[in-house]
From TrEMBL:
This is D-xylose transport system substrate-binding protein. GO terms for molecular function: carbohydrate binding. Its main location: other. Keywords: Signal. It is found in: Cell envelope. Residues 1-19 form the signal peptide.
Length: 348
């Protein structure tokens, strides 16, 4: 009887153990393992001087589209033409822990400290179109502004009937204006052409460039040619000429191939503009920014590359080539490339 009782107890204990073991296995099988956290998407910060100029709106649109096409996000900061605001916005991008910053500096020497703080956090910085001086930037991307100046001078030599030239440029703190003047002076050095005066338009204020052109028209030395810092400046110059000397042909040039400039070229009011491949520039900037954010090497074989000394170091630089546009090649350069439509250029 005792043996029979012990067998029953033993059988019950075995069954109980098996039941507990099965429940433990079942419980273990229903516990979900935590999924790995999704990778944070690459985020590129773009700090732009201003969007008040047609050119920069186009650059930004192309840049954003290309970055998103590459699977990354963009945070845009518009400084509104203000140095202090641009530095505050760069620190905001630092706080957002972006993976790379592309900056179009308001002033060449104004962002050195902000760049240093970004670089201290291992955030790569690309100087876009304008060179940031005395700053630890990783890369400089631009259209060759010295060649812009050279082409302006070369083409103006073919059109100007006299030697009295004037330059109405952008702000003196825009380093591209210095490079443009270097290019102009290199070409006219051994010619009869003479720059009577160079005016720098503070803050790209087109009222100031208009007033300067009025002053020139009323001066003792009548202008034989006007070289402008961009097409918007050229538009203000043309406005002054149309008001005071509407029947006088004074060759005027600018840069950027704005739609108004292309229309003026067709109408004979502007001699030419310098087209800069800004679609390519913005796309290249987007590609480089994403590659730097991922700590990948940039394929420099696709571009003309060199270095430029910005006062801090010799900065790797990608140069794109400008080309002059007049009424003879406007269709090929501007319309066939899709930069502007024929309908917008030749509107009635």
């Amino acid at each position: 009887m005792l043996k029979k009782y012990l067998r029953v107890v033993l059988l019950f204990a075995v069954c109980l153990a098996l039941t507990v073991s099965c429940k433990k296995q079942e419980a273990a099988s229903t516990v979900r393992q935590p999924s790995p956290a999704p990778a944070r998407p690459i985020t590129i910060g773009f700090s732009i001087d201003t969007l008040a100029i047609e050119r920069w709106q186009r650059d930004l649109d192309v840049f954003i589209n290309k970055v998103k096409e590459m699977g990354a996000d963009v945070i845009v900061q518009n400084a509104g033409n203000n140095i202090e605001e641009q530095n505050r916005q760069l620190m905001y991008l630092l706080e957002r822990n972006v993976d790379c910053v592309v900056v179009l500096p308001k002033e060449a020497t104004s962002i050195s400290e902000s760049v240093a703080k970004l670089r201290a956090k291992n955030i790569p910085v690309i100087s876009y179109d304008r060179l940031a001086l005395n700053a630890d930037v990783n890369l400089y991307l631009t259209i060759d502004s010295e060649k812009v100046g050279e082409q302006m001078a070369q083409e103006m030599l073919r059109r100007a009937n006299g030697k009295n030239w004037y330059c109405i440029l952008g702000p003196s703190e825009d380093y591209n204006m210095i490079l443009i003047m270097d290019g102009i002076n290199r070409i006219i050095r051994n010619t009869s052409a003479h720059i009577n005066h160079t005016f720098y338009t503070d803050g790209w204020n087109y009222d100031l460039s208009y007033q300067e052109m009025v002053r020139i028209l009323k001066s003792d030395t009548f202008p034989d040619a006007i070289i402008c810092g961009n097409d918007a400046v050229a538009a203000s110059v043309i406005q002054a000429i149309n008001r005071y000397y509407p029947d006088t042909n004074i060759p005027v040039c600018g840069q950027d191939a704005d739609i108004s400039a292309c229309q003026y070229i067709v109408q004979g009011k502007q001699a030419f503009t310098i087209y800069k491949p800004i679609i390519q520039l913005a796309e290249v900037a987007a590609e480089c920014a994403v590659h730097l954010a991922k700590h990948e090497e940039i394929n420099e074989s696709r571009f003309r590359c060199s270095v430029i000394d910005n006062g801090f170091a010799k900065i790797p630089t990608v140069w794109l080539e400008p080309v002059h546009v007049d009424k003879y090649n406007l269709d090929k350069i501007i319309i066939e490339s899709g930069f502007h439509s024929a309908a917008s250029v030749y509107k009635e």
